[in-house]
Amino acid sequence: MNSGPKADISGEKSSCTSGFLTESCLLAFGLPSIGDGELVCEWEKAGAADARICWVENGKIVAGTIEGFIAFRASAPKYKFSSDSLETALKEGLSGALTASAAMEACRRLSVPCAVSCGIGGIYGASDGERCQDLTMIRDSGVILVCTSPKDMLDTEATIGWLRRNGVAVLGCGSDLCTGFVFRGRPVQLSGAWQGGAVEAPAVILRGIADDKRIKDEEILKRAVCEAKEAEKSGGYFHPAANAALDRLTGGYSSRLQLYSLLDNIRLAAELF
């Protein structure tokens, strides 16, 4: 299957014709109930056939279509890379999925103006020292991020507050509030509501999930976080473990909710770029 253009950016400047790149971590590790056939079907139904997904394969950044990504996912990749580990992956010839921060770094290197994600990382508590690389890249990469929200187990108010204090425009698609990710959270004030028109970096556009589609039982979130912490203690990845638990505890609903949200974000990015 054709995975689209591959760009070896370990030593020289490359470019990509796509207006945005979609992170691959959720697609590779976060949708355990969604098989390859369903993923391709939903992707095509959403009109996202031309959307490019980014990952690293044998030390090269790939900007590939869904068909190429399915072949990559079938290889059972073990690693995920953030912006601070991407360079090592390239130098050592590794393969793995890219988080939102690494997708923004890939966009920066390939001169792509926008990255797309679903739930993003942020601040786990009141300390800025615990912030995820996603925030640093939103501030510094020069790339606009279209996403859904900070993930539910994070301190959303601290996360959005950090971005705003650091000069990032945090805009809600049609709303000036962030009310959570797949669960309903306490409303957090944004920089403003995005009603259409051009946006300049540093900026993030949040396209929230409709309240009536969100998961209502917050005990599910608590159980998923506990399982993710145990997985992390054993050397696993926190967020993929949390997604696996959410998927199991909701009978696959959480995976489909995140996939549909990601596809909505891709459609929005396609309108912008």
Tell me what you see in this structure.
By secondary structure, the chain is an alpha/beta fold. The protein has one domain: Indigoidine synthase domain (Indigoidine synthase fold). The protein contains ten helices and 15 strands. The strands form three sheets. Strands 1, 2, 3, 4, 5, 6, 7, 9, 11, 14 and 15 form an eleven-stranded mixed beta sheet that branches. A hairpin with a 2-residue loop joins strand 3 and strand 4. Helix 4 (83-91) crosses helix 5 (100-110), helix 5 (100-110) packs parallel to helix 6 (133-140) and helix 8 (218-233) packs antiparallel against helix 9 (238-249). The chain is globular and about 40 Å long. Residues 1-15 have low confidence and may be disordered.
Overall structural domain count: 1
Terminal CA distance reads 26 Å
The CATH superfamily label reads Indigoidine synthase domain
Percent range for β-strand residues: 15-25%
- The sequence of SSEs as H and E is EEHHEEHEHEHEEHEEHEEEEEHHH
Count of DSSP strands: 15
Helix and strand composition category: alpha/beta
Give the uncertain stretches in residue-range form: 1-15
- Identify the overall geometry: globular
The CATH topology is given as: Indigoidine synthase fold
Radius of gyration: 17 Å
Averaging pLDDT over every residue, what do you get? 92
The number of distinct helices, counting runs of at least 4 residues, comes to 10
Report the major sheet. Answer: 11 strands, mixed
The CATH architecture designation is 3-Layer(aba) Sandwich
Determine and state the CATH class.
Alpha Beta
Helix content: 40-55%
Q: Please give the oligomerization state of what you see.
A: single chain
